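Example record used in the benchmark description.
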Amino acid sequence: MIVTALIVPFVIGSLLMLFRGDVPGRLAALLGAAAMATSLVLFAMVWDGPNGVSGEVDTSWIEPLRAHFHIGVTALSWPFLLMTAFLGLLCCIWLVADDTSPAVVGLVLVISASSLGVFASLDLLLLFVFFELALIPMWFLIAWWGAPDDPDGRRRAATRFLLFTVSGSALVLVGIVIVAVQSKSLQIFEVTSGSVVAASLIALGFAVKTPLVPLHTWLPDAHSKAPTVGSVLLAGVFLKLGTYGLLFLDSFMLHDPFGKVAPYLAVAGVVGIVWSALACYAQDDLKRLIAYSSIGHMGFVVLAISTQSVVGVAAAVFGSVVHGLITGLLFFLSGSLKERFGTASMAAIGRGLYTRTPWLAVAFVFAAVASLGLPGLAGFWGELLSLRSAYEVGDVLTKSGAWTLLGFAVLGIALTTAYFVRAIRLIAQGEPVPRDEDRDLGGHEVVVSVALAASILVLGLAPGLIVGLYDHPTVTYHGSYSAVTP
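Model output (structure tokens):
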């Protein structure tokens, strides 16, 4: 079942890229939606609960390297798998109305399937292969179907994205080789030893992907030049490959050596929270603002991971998932605005969207207040759990250090509120100046917006749907894999 969930979108996506001239765009998008819906349903059905590995498949792959095709669903990976399949489904629904090139749909499917493979992998080499498979399709998506008015800029942004992520991948690969040599195994649950060097290399490689300051410079340009579905996948899925790698490979697999690295990551995460908020306040381009905000939200996730505590695990997973949903909605809506007005500049879009396009304005304001952490919505719990993990200190950070970082993180929340309120005032409120381009939400926009808004509201009212996965008495953290193994 789990193999089918990976193969269906990958095969259909590959075929759409090969036969793009023979398949109408809308039909391709419908096929893509069906493929991602299949994956979503299969991952939901295979789940057996928070103990052990669900739907496990383990077969020999490359015998000389002792590599296995070893996949399964764990308590850590299941929320990431569902989120990825859900966002991939919504991207395909979004493309139905655009009558886009079938190749775009194919790229979305291959990227989604490769990302699902990362989250499902229980073999280090297999995880790395899936990780790399997702990079090249994203380069094509940005470089070929990005900002139509700036072909040179979109290729530069795509190439910078590729160079940064491939460099990070190289560090991760070296770390994996060191771990495999020391443990004489590539199976994640068989890793019995690791060094600080390996943990540092893996952490640095995934920090590029997360991204952490100062390794973030590829992100704003990539988002501003990417097509709407590219931005959604970048923020909603690609950044989670970084946080998942930090959480699963470093914090769990290399628990003790990672403890030496964690304080530095915590500092980098909190610096990103404050710095990105200041950068957001200076932005006029809405897509760049959302991109910078992602750096701050990932800072909260990394802070939680760095505490190496049970609360930190719950905070990291919950924060990653809700960021994917909230920022996905923000990028869908900013894409709608850019499609209407030909720009993402808030000054050019103009004020008074409450009057000009009321439902579009309401959807944007909902996503903005969810992102800034309004109580009752999912973003609130993501931030609160991260703050709680720092308040409880954990086993790695000192009390003075953890509470200092906590104070700066709280400052970051205040700054986040300031820049989102500024954005709301600039485009939703004020005296309206009607324009010919004014058009409220269309059918596909309503479907996508309602689906994401409902998910954000449900997780805001019932965070235990995710957090509860880590409340089970047999789900432990320190030096144990019982959270994710039989």
